[in-house]
């Protein structure tokens, strides 16, 4: 707080826009997070995670989608993004724009994963800390709070301004034979005693998010090879 003033050094303008436009139930969470950035940086990590969870659940409930209270934040965000249109309908069919937005969305998911990890290691409610523990400071709390503010505002605007998207069909192992073959040809068979397992199937069963990310990169590379778009011109990388 500034001396002689009630004006906070940091305000979540994006989240407040969503609050003022109808999501009044997140008002207290916004206030508390703003105060924590300066007064208690560790608490800011907990509050950022809680605010993002509230916003995701709000979208899912208003879309009449069932969610599980046991879902972690990355899962909640993924389900939320699957149920809102990320761009106006009139340009949604433009493949290059769609691909760029997908990359940006993957970035948001990475940010959210980072927030969750910071909350687990340096949050106010994390496990007890020993005498050698060093808490992160305001700079880190501010980074997390600003990232949270941006994500909340984007989810709100996309939800309000664009019609609902059709939920994506569940990713299936059998529908990606060429990609599975690529994985299997470039990795050794997984062996446990006399049992043998395909690397592609092991990846799909154990880490479906990594499988999906690699599948998207693989698909983008195939499109680059077909169109002749030089790798790297649009930020593409080989799988």
Descriptive notes:
With 239 residues, the protein is mainly alpha-helical. It has two domains: 13-161, Four Helix Bundle (Hemerythrin (Met), subunit A); 177-227, no CATH class. 59% of the residues lie in helices and 3% in strands. The protein has nine helices and two strands; from the N terminus they run αααααααββαα. The chain has helices at 13-20, 27-39, 41-62, 73-81, 95-122, 138-161, 177-185, 199-206, 208-227; strands spanning 190-192, 195-197. It has a two-stranded antiparallel sheet. A hairpin with a 2-residue loop joins β1 (190-192) and β2 (195-197). The protein starts with 12 loop residues before the first helix and ends in a 12-residue tail after the last helix.
CATH-level-2 architecture of the largest domain: Up-down Bundle
Mean pLDDT: 84
Strand order of the largest sheet: 1-2
Structural class based on helices, strands and sheet pairing: mainly alpha
Q: Estimate percent helicity.
A: 55-70%
Task: Give a quick set of tags describing it.
239 residues; mainly alpha; Four Helix Bundle (Hemerythrin (Met), subunit A); 2 domains; 9 helices; 2 strands; 3% strand; disordered N terminus; disordered C terminus
Secondary-structure topology with pairs:
Blueprint: H1 13-20, H2 27-39, H3 41-62, H4 73-81, H5 95-122, H6 138-161, H7 177-185, E1 190-192, E2 195-197, H8 199-206, H9 208-227
Antiparallel strand pairs: 1-2
Helix pairs in contact: 1-6, 2-3, 2-6, 3-4, 3-5, 3-6, 4-5, 5-6, 8-9
Short account of what is shown:
The protein has about 240 residues and is an all-alpha fold.
């Amino acid at each position: 707080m500034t001396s002689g003033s009630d004006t906070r050094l940091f305000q979540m303008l994006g989240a407040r826009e969503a609050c003022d436009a109808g999501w009044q139930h997140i008002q207290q969470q916004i206030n508390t997070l703003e105060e924590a950035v300066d007064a208690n940086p560790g608490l800011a990590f907990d509050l950022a995670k809680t605010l993002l969870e509230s916003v995701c659940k709000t979208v899912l409930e208003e879309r009449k989608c069932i969610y599980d209270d046991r879902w972690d934040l990355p899962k909640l965000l993924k389900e939320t993004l699957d149920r809102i249109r990320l761009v106006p309908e009139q340009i949604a069919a433009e493949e290059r724009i769609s691909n760029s937005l997908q990359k940006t969305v993957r970035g948001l998911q990475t940010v959210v994963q980072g927030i969750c990890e910071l909350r687990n290691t340096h949050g106010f409610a994390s496990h007890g800390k020993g005498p050698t523990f060093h808490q992160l400071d305001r700079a880190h709390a501010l980074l997390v709070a600003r990232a949270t503010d941006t994500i909340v505002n984007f989810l709100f605007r996309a939800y309000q301004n664009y019609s609902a998207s059709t939920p994506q069909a569940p990713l299936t192992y059998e529908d990606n034979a060429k990609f599975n073959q690529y994985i299997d040809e470039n990795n050794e068979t997984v062996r446990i005693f006399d049992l043998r397992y395909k690397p592609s199937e092991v990846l799909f069963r154990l880490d479906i998010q990594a499988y999906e990310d690699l599948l998207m990169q693989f698909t983008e590379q195939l499109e680059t090879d077909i169109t002749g778009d030089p790798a790297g011109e649009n930020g593409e990388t080989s799988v």
